[in-house]
Amino acid sequence: MPQPIPVTMPMPQPQTQAPYEPAPMASPPVPLPPLFSPVPLPAQAVEPVLNEPLLPRVDIEVAEGPRKPKSKPPAEFRSGVKYFNLGKYSKAKKSFNSALQEHPDLVKAFLYLGLIAFEEKEFETARDHLLRFLESNPGNRKANLVMVKIFKQLREWTNLVGILERLLGLDYVCDESNIKLMKELGSAYIFVREFEKAKQTLETVFHFDPTDPQSDYHLAMSYFHLQDFTKAEALLRDILREVPQGNRLQVMAESLMEKIR
């Protein structure tokens, strides 16, 4: 058999490799800011309760130009005021009613109409006009003080108590500015049979001004209805000594004294 021919295979040459160099490290990532930055609560803050009402939204007002001057009242109203100040009530009423026909929301005209009706002793008309005015001006002191006199004339005692309590307020004090209203309130409590309130109010009045026989009489009445007859009799004796014989208050004091006896 023929001999195989030897084949000489070339040997691969070793390749020189570049020395290993590590890749440079990337710079550390920059942290992104959170979407909502937490705001620390003050030390004494309380977390909101879920069922509390939300605060109303407050809109920032845009500055505007200078305010426009108030428009003048209509000519009929101004004429009515002029006639009222002159005591010409008939012409004043005509002017105010004419103004209201053209301007039905001119509530101040009802104030003047009420004052005119009171001066003319038309107390129910005066009450209705002034109540219409007080609907939009409940704090007007002049109108309220006239209403006190009107309710007293009409013997609307419950309404009288309500308006006097509103005029005096909750924390009133007995002084020169309030003494007359307190006397009226103490007397009005008698007529609505609030005798304990009458006693408390009129005792305060008595300590401030013990020389008013009418207030003393109403205080005696409150004592009588509360069955404190000793105090009632003592006040009535003072009234009978001070008030002239035949005076209406003297007659009422004598009548109440007889009931005690």
Summary tags:
Serine Threonine Protein Phosphatase 5, Tetratricopeptide repeat, elongated, 261 residues, 11 helices, disordered N terminus, mainly alpha
Q: How much beta, percentage-wise?
A: under 5%
Query: What's the quaternary structure here?
Result: single chain
> How much helical structure, as a percent, in the residues?
40-55%
Beginning-to-end CA distance, first to last residue: 173 Å
CATH architecture of the domain at 170-261: Alpha Horseshoe
Order of helices and strands: HHHHHHHHHHH
Based on DSSP secondary structure assignment, what is the total number of beta strands?
0
With helices defined by DSSP (H or I, 4 residues minimum), what is the helix count? 11
Mean pLDDT: 81
> Residue ranges: pLDDT <50 for 5 or more in a row?
1-65
Which geometry do the CA atoms define?
A: elongated
- If you consult CATH, what is the topology of the domain at 170-261? Serine Threonine Protein Phosphatase 5, Tetratricopeptide repeat
CATH class of the domain at 170-261: Mainly Alpha
Largest sheet: none
CATH homologous superfamily descriptor of the domain at 170-261: Tetratricopeptide repeat domain
* Helix vs. strand class: mainly alpha
Q: Radius of gyration, Cα only, in angstroms?
A: 45 Å
